[in-house]
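Here is one chain, start to finish.
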Amino acid sequence: MPKLVDVCEAIRSKNAGPFWITVDLFFKGREEFERYASHKALGTQALAGIYDVDPSMVKHFPVERLHMLKVSYPRRLPQGGIVERDMHGGQQFVRLLDIEL
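Its structure:
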């Protein structure tokens, strides 16, 4: 089984405002996008479990033209809080690298 890191050219995460994080999955091409963008391992339930958020709050935005999937989910705590460990959300993608597809 390939891992997400094997089928994506780039994977990044970032703030989407003080209350949301966005993860961008840039697949290597059309074939990978069509095969994996709607995979169960990248579905609402799976990602909600990884990030410990309500599944109804996980949003998927496929961008077919760019062979990209954008996933957004709410931060558990607002950006800049006293226990903030990733102010810019730039490390949140790491949890997804080894997902088996």
